[in-house]
Inverse folding.
């Protein structure tokens, strides 16, 4: 694999291509051109070729790409060939929604445990996933070999939860709390701000003056 | 405003700059350089200047940017100077979490109503936001002049809900259902796939082989 820096936008598009290829594979489609991928996902053929070129040579001139091979390759690039175990901290509405979110499992992510400090929730399950007290975090992370932690608690607890996840041994954290948290350099961190999605919509509405 | 195509990544960064400037403004900081903005958000000064240059000339050589002026300008670019009313369809875990998500209100989005077809939920409120039957969608959207609709229903209902939102007069739709939906060209659509965020983390873990 080349070591040059891959733009995040490319990684996001690879993820989109992979979903599309999965759909095509299910329909029994064997070959596809970069133009067809571009059309299917709403991009340009040149962009598709450029994104894939970061990771070496794919496809056969005049035939295009083998759908399944290309998809398996992208899945490997995205690190999804290995299944990932995920723990979620916070069993409120957001934590509950994330625990039951079908889109995670479809892409190889298994939520194995949820943690909360509400005694009324501890011992219950969400879609079969057990809710543990937060004091069990380290034990469960080790036992399950969970490598990813999701923070779904109020902002004021987010840093404490992040520290606790890092101590427990997770290697990557997805933070849904709208607050800035810090983690050691060897831990991957991504902050999800759901409002950004609305801002992209309103930017486009304002541009077109299409809101009255 | 220039009419050239603005990359989505730029819009997302503008949104990030704006949050950072809002924090600084609250702390009473008056001026900032592109280097300080870059440091605060984890980018490069050249990127900050390039992003802002899409929208004209800002700042004074040697002084930098006025924090409040720049933020207000970005807020206007993002269409956030006008408050936006939002309706959410689906009062399950995800819809409930989104209704109570503080990050929306902080950025000028007001959730005015939630819709569901569960008779046990209709008539209740979520954080003060009323839950209406889906049959009231058109009436409430018109009355409230809501322009944005959020889809938080299972995939199989997503297209029906989208059609219904469009008929009711919303101009932009944020879709959390993991399914492909289509809307007329004059309606803005954005699909949120929460799993992509995990895939960016695992891509980075796989790259560093940092997962054991």
């Amino acid at each position: 694999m080349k070591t040059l820096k891959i733009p995040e936008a490319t990684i996001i598009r690879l993820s989109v291509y992979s979903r599309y290829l999965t759909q095509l594979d299910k329909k029994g489609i064997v070959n596809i051109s970069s133009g067809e991928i571009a059309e299917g996902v709403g991009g340009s053929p040149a962009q598709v070729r450029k994104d894939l070129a970061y990771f070496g040579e794919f496809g056969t001139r005049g035939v295009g790409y083998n759908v399944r091979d290309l998809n398996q390759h992208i899945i490997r690039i995205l690190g999804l060939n290995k299944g990932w175990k995920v723990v979620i901290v916070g069993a409120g509405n957001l934590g509950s929604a994330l625990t039951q979110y079908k889109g995670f499992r479809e892409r190889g992510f298994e939520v194995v445990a949820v943690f909360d400090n509400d005694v009324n929730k501890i011992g219950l399950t969400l879609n079969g996933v057990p809710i543990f007290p937060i004091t069990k975090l380290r034990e469960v992370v080790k036992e399950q070999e969970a490598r990813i932690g999701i923070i779904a608690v109020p902002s004021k607890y987010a840093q404490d939860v992040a520290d606790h996840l890092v101590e427990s041994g997770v290697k990557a954290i997805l933070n849904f709390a709208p607050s800035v948290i810090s983690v050691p350099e060897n831990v991957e961190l991504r902050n999800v701000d759901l409002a950004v999605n609305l801002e992209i919509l309103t930017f486009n509405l304002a541009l077109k003056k299409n809101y009255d």
